[in-house]
Amino acid sequence: MAPKLIKSMPKAVRRGVIVFISALALLTSGMIGAAAENYMRDANSDNKVAIRGCVVRFDQRDAAGKTVPRIYANNAHYCVGVTSVSVVDGDLQVLSNNDEPVMSLVVSSDETLTRYGISCGASGGLASTVIRCYDRTGAKVNADSPRMYGAGSNLWLTWFSWQDV
Q1: SS3 16
Q2: How confident is the model at residue 32 (pLDDT cuts 50, 70, 90)?
């Protein structure tokens, strides 16, 4: 009876039923619960956490007048774990020498970009992080836009990654 009923269902409904039954079977067998627990850690002094951080400055322009973001590192501004920055499809792409799981990722606009009404958020965080910026109206501001340019326009980036080595 059940096989006939399942065969009479539309294909999309059949797939949904199969996925639901499979997930239910995994959950009741403990496989999903066990996998989820592997991503939880207790806070303690033995945790293997790596911190990456860097300042990206927007104080240079190319011949066409586009802003060219760059790593800003000197004796007062260290850059740890970031290998390069570039603009890809208007977004800031930050490459890193670390591809461990991310626990936290923070992008902070400095006072100059904040005054311009620009705030940014990140996606990813392993070896590649994509940062997208917006103005106060919610309109996207490309990382190479003249609106990002300024002698002190900075994004401060910080990652906390789990080192499971």
Answers
A1: helix
A2: very low
